[in-house]
């Protein structure tokens, strides 16, 4: 009886589904987090009677056949890259991206990572860095005597110096990808480029295909609590139904073994 194995694959699939949902819920307040969704595929089929086979010398064709599936497997945990809501913080170095694009971050090993988390700080040298101390790429350094930091929608960073002059410190650039769902998550709100994502396309905010910037705002996670609760209930019920199938198959085995 294959029902035990088939139902077991269903229970494993729903267990993973709940893990994905729990990670979404855990990151509901994570800046720039993008929710994931578990996608499933059916497993190979055993053909007991193949459709289209001839059943007589006159060419009679089997219209449907007999196929027995062997369960379910996890095909992907797709990341939903939709826009999260923007929350006002009034902090000078908080930056939200509206629509397409990622900030470029220089990792200690020289690798470029990408993020939607725009909560930047200044390190001891005045360089704009993430909360983990990783510098923005291209780097922007803010002098000690600078005041009234202004980050425009097109990414230009300007300050007022001690003499009251407006000084341009640099240009924030964004990266975008043909398949942004193909980026690899490495934690700390960072992604890495992969062959699936395609090569990064770099340009200034506000240019064709790129979003613009909003200073004093942060993009919140795109996790909807109601959707996650509904998905959790559906996953729980599917898990229960698969467990009932295992119980039913066990009872059928028991009936067979008790035949005298």
From TrEMBL:
Keywords: Bacterial flagellum, Cell projection, Cilium, Flagellum. It comes from Roseibium algae. Residues 5-34 form the Flagellar basal body rod protein N-terminal domain. The basal body constitutes a major portion of the flagellar organelle and consists of four rings (L,P,S, and M) mounted on a central rod. The rod consists of about 26 subunits of FlgG in the distal portion, and FlgB, FlgC and FlgF are thought to build up the proximal portion of the rod with about 6 subunits each. PANTHER family: FLAGELLAR BASAL-BODY ROD PROTEIN FLGG, FLAGELLAR PROTEIN. Residues 214-259 form the Flagellar basal-body/hook protein C-terminal domain. This is Flagellar basal-body rod protein FlgG. It is found in: Bacterial flagellum basal body. Residues 96-159 form the Flagellar hook protein FlgE/F/G-like D1 domain. InterPro entries: Flag_bb_rod_N (IPR001444), Flagellar_basal_body_rod_CS (IPR019776), Flagellar_FlgE/F/G (IPR020013), Flg_bb/hook_C_dom (IPR010930), FlgE/F/G-like (IPR037925), FlgG_G_neg (IPR012834), LlgE_F_G-like_D1 (IPR053967). Its main location: other. The gene is flgG. The lineage of its organism: Bacteria, Pseudomonadati, Pseudomonadota, Alphaproteobacteria, Hyphomicrobiales. It comes from the Bacteria. Belongs to the flagella basal body rod proteins family.
């Amino acid at each position: 009886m294959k029902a035990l194995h088939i139902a077991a694959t269903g229970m494993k699939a729903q267990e993973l589904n709940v893990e994905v949902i729990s990670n979404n819920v855990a990151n509901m307040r994570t800046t720039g987090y993008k929710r994931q969704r578990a996608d499933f595929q059916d497993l190979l089929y055993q053909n007991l009677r193949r459709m289209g086979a001839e059943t007589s010398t006159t060419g009679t064709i089997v219209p449907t056949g007999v196929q027995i599936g062997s369960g379910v497997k996890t095909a992907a945990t797709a990341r939903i890259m939709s826009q999260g809501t923007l929350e006002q913080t009034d902090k000078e170095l908080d930056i939200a991206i509206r629509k397409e694009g990622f900030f470029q971050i220089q990792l200690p090993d020289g690798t470029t990572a990408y993020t939607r988390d725009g909560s930047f700080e200044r390190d001891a040298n005045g360089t704009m860095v993430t909360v983990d101390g990783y510098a923005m790429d291209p780097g922007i350094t803010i002098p000690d005597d600078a005041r009234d930091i202004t980050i425009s929608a097109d990414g230009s960073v300007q300050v007022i110096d001690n003499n009251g002059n407006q000084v341009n410190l640099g240009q924030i650039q964004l990266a975008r990808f043909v398949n942004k769902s193909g980026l690899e998550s490495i934690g700390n709100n960072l992604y890495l480029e992969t062959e699936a994502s395609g090569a990064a396309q770099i340009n200034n905010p506000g240019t064709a295909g790129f979003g613009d910037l909003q200073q004093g705002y942060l993009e919140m996670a795109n996790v909807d609590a109601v959707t996650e609760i509904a998905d959790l209930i559906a996953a729980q019920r599917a898990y229960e139904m698969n467990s009932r199938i295992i119980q039913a198959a066990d009872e059928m085995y028991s009936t067979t073994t008790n035949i005298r």
